[in-house]
Amino acid sequence: MPTILVVDDNEAIRRTRCILLKRAGYDVEEAASGTDAIRLLNQSVYDLVITDLKLGDIDGFTVLKEAKLAQLSTTEVIVITAYGTVEDGIEAMKQGAFHYIPKNTGNEEILIHIEKALEAKQLQDSVQKYRAKLGGSLNIDHLIGRTPAIREVADLIQRIAGSDSTVLILGETGTGKSLIARIIHNMSSRRDKPLVEINCAAIPDTLQESELFGYVKGAFTGADRTKKGLIEEGHQSTVFLDEIGEMSPENQTKLLHFLENGQIRRVGDTKPISVEARIIAATNRDLDIARRQKSFREDLYYRLNVITINLSPLRARMEDVPLLATTFLRQHADRMRKDVQRFTDDALKMLCRYDWPGNVRELENVVERAVLLSTGREIAARDIQAYVTHKPETYSRQQVTPRIVRSRKHIHPPEKVLARISHLSLEELEREFILYKLKQCEGNQVVTAEQLGIGRTTLWRKLKQYGVLGSEQSQAT
């Protein structure tokens, strides 16, 4: 059922119009001011917005602009004009309105214009779905959000998508790094060729070289034919190296050679092969720390770091949660063919109070699950509370510092502790704290893991990552 937002500061006219639309079978919400309209546009997705131009606080042009900015690109807007304001109506159409109608238009004519607007929206939706099947529909409109952080990312993508420069995407797991890579590729001149996606973390170290660079027949046992590598498959296209921080040191060297010379060498081959491909890399690791710890090549870091896109975690742009959640709700409801229309206010508040350690991916999973299990037209707080009430165990500055101070007050007074750690990143701070606890426990990893509240395997992996796991520590029990 199409959802329509009616915006008018005249209560009698607004209510009359809402009654008309509800009787016609539409799902209707109303806003008594431009400010209320913008608030609702940031919380829900509408098929159509009907707004008066003359509102008490902000005018209909602003509502039109915000609707086109906040909503998916297929949302239509009809502008209502008063007598003698036809010029304003024409200007509204120039700014993206589907149509303008005078205030004295009869009900039957209004319903006809609404039906045409919704038909236009349905046609645009069909076109987008068709393009999605062809793999080329992703564009800047799929970056959902209105916060400065996401707008800056969108602006940067628009400026660099058409170039061939190497791009490095940084962000926590679930922030949308793969989405950004696909958008850049689809907005580039290489979009007619398929994007080659490679998850470096999913390929064992022993297979990375042959998978990335290919091999010739007889190069090793089982190499019964010559095979192109994934980078070569991306010739004249884009190669997306996800989790680049997990690439082995040997293959980091080979990748650096390719970035410098545009050539690769298959395993077992003596001749180089020229490959012309754009590289987009992504990682959730801090490569600056990794290069200083010598686990990532410094020269490769600078080669990759031509254009850097930093994706903020969702907890840093919580204003985008309502719009993201409602967008996911509409997408999954359409896919599942379920008549789920909205979140209740309490449900949206609950979503906005959670800190989303899994970022946008976790939010979409929660919404998908809620839509799948829903039995009504609304998602209530009780439908999602089981998934968004727990708090992840993280080591923030506020958590770590008091524990250090309480453990050895005579060693580090609070002021000295804060002064010493104030310049550290969160990853460096975690390293300092883990090593401090290990020393405090006299190298006993079992006791250290228990005091940290993590598994012994997790502790071992972190110590190995820090490059401080010696034979004495590995044997400590």
Descriptive account of the structure:
It is a single chain. The protein has 477 residues and is α/β, with parallel strands linked by helices. The chain has 4 domains: 3-134, Rossmann fold; 141-310, 3-Layer(aba) Sandwich (Rossmann fold), CATH 3.40.50.300; 314-388, Helicase, Ruva Protein, domain 3; 397-474, no CATH class. Helix content is 49%, strand content 13%. The strands form 5 sheets. Strands 2-1-3-4-5 form a 5-stranded parallel beta sheet, with helices on both faces. A hairpin with an 8-residue loop joins β11 and β12 (273-274). The N and C termini lie far apart (63 Å).
**Overall mean confidence score, pLDDT:** 82
CATH homologous superfamily caption of the largest domain = P-loop containing nucleotide triphosphate hydrolases
Just name the CATH architecture of the largest domain. Answer: 3-Layer(aba) Sandwich
Secondary-structure class: alpha/beta
| CATH class membership of the largest domain | Alpha Beta
Radius of gyration: 28 Å
Portion of residues within helices: 40-55%
Lateral arrangement of strands in the main beta sheet: 2-1-3-4-5
Shape category:
globular
- CATH topology of the largest domain, by name, is Rossmann fold
Beta content comes to 5-15%
Total domains, how many?
4
Q: What is the tally of helical segments? A: 22
